[in-house]
Amino acid sequence: MMNIDRKKLLDQSEPPPGSQLRLLIVGRAQAESVELQAALASLHGITIETVPTLARLSIALQKGGSPPDLVMVDVNPDNPDDIAVLRDLRKVTGIGDLPIIALTERSTIQAPLRAMRAGADDVLLKPIDLDEARDVFNRVMEHPRRNRPGSSMVGKVVAFMHLSGGAGATTLAVNTACALARVPRTKPTCLLDFDIQFGNAASLLDLPSTSPIQEFIDDPTRLDVGMLESMMLRHQSGLQVLTAPRQLLPLNAYAADGLRTMIDVAKQHFGFIVFDLPVALAPWTDSVLKTATVIYLVTSMSVPSAHRLIKFLDLLHEEGVRELPIKIVANRHHKGNRGNDISVAQFEKATGRKVDFLIPNDYSLISMSHGQGKPAIRLKPNSPFTVALTEMLGADLGKDVFVQPKRSFFSFRRA
Question: Collapsing DSSP states into helix, strand and coil, what is residue 107?
Fold first, then answer.
């Protein structure tokens, strides 16, 4: 084990005052623990302790040792013994609602899902990236298990749609999902890429593979929470993603009844469900629109876009679909109308609809985001793009959604 004084854990006196977060690593050989300690050494505000077994941890806590702030278990999810350790950890007196992080190999795609099913609150991938570690530690401390909402709370559906290619709806959907994944005191967030022909959310998030959806297509009646989670990929932000399939499929590959079931299952399990819809209207499009908390129709300020919006609104009227929570979003908007084909006022006059939100054009940031496979809101948290997007979401989902919790000892600084 790591060359760390484990007597600290057994000490029954009050811990010394300070702002150190206590991380406890359970059950690894000394060489591996030393390597973990070295990998995390650059994070300020954290002390690391270890115990070799759950039994040792249990004895220490029973003797009055103060519990850690969070627990990390280095596991191989393919090993039944490691999974057993995760499952048994919650049974240790004194652990209770403490955050548990599973540390596992980055190359094992299904490992995060197996670890979280076994009881982990979050997953940190090896080799350890300090930015990821900082995000994971902050996230689990901001989402204490005891403060998580109960299963009776139904998730909110946020849908992004566009009527022409290149509007930037997927970029907004991906960044929205990543922003909502960090909202404290909520259930997890998921992103469902329903552009099953040309969806590229996986590329924008630099995910290593695509979702295995064939079983769902073959028999949608089998869908439950376990099956839905097994189809999802986990992003380092904590976001769970159902990607578009690798192969191009017809729009009717998804059955409307199956998608309604998927939405119902997702709303029970997730706090926010973000949809990225295709440019074409599918037989199941209304299944999403009728369940949405808000629908962001993303467009540019141009004459062709105005014509498409008019046709879409006319179609909704003809179909008797009314009172949908549609908000018009002018994306890549140039301040002062320079670079826009038509002004916002002209667009509103032509369509008879108010433009609800303006997302500023930031070509360099979005290009960098796409090139690196990292959300723009994380690359530049204070950019005009990020501010406009979070203000838009706050207006429709609640102004307190993005209120940041007060920083405390677990808010790590960069080295």
Answer: coil
In this prediction, residue 96 has a pLDDT band, given cuts at 50, 70 and 90, of low
240-242/189-193 β-pairing:
parallel
Residue 261 in this model has a pLDDT that exceeds 60: yes
Burial code (b: 16+ CB inside 10 Å, e: under 16) for 27-55 equals bbeeeebbbbbebbeebeebebbbbeebe
Distance between CA atoms of 58 and 56, rounded to whole angstroms? 5
Give the orientation angle of helix 363-372 with respect to helix 169-180, to 10 degrees.
70
Structure tokens at 231: 């189809």
**What does the alpha-carbon distance between residue 75 and residue 88 come to, in Å, rounded to a whole number?**
13
* Helical H segments across 290-352, by residue range: 303-318, 344-351
pTM of the model: 0.64
Mean pLDDT within 280-305: 86
How far is Cα 275 from Cα 367, in angstroms, rounded to an integer? 22
d(CA 289, CA 31): 54
Beta strands per DSSP E along 198-302: 233-234, 240-242, 272-276, 294-299
Burial level of 320, CB count in 10 A (0-12/13-18/19+)? Answer: exposed
Q: What is the pLDDT of residues 325-348, one digit of tens each?
A: 889 998 888 776 666 678 888 889
Could you tell me which residues come within 8 angstroms of residue 316 by beta carbon, excluding any fewer than 6 positions away?
322, 324
Angle, CA of 141, 397 and 355, to the nearest 5°: 140
Alpha-carbon distances, residue 243 vs 28, 288, 290, 385 (angstroms):
35, 16, 22, 24
Task: Collapse the DSSP code of 274 into the 3-class scheme (helix H, G, I; strand E, B; otherwise coil) and give the result.
Answer: strand
Length of the chain in residues, anyone?
415
C-alpha angle 194/378/410, rounded to 5°?
A: 120
Distance, in Å, from the CA atom of 373 to the CA atom of 202, rounded to the nearest integer, reads 9
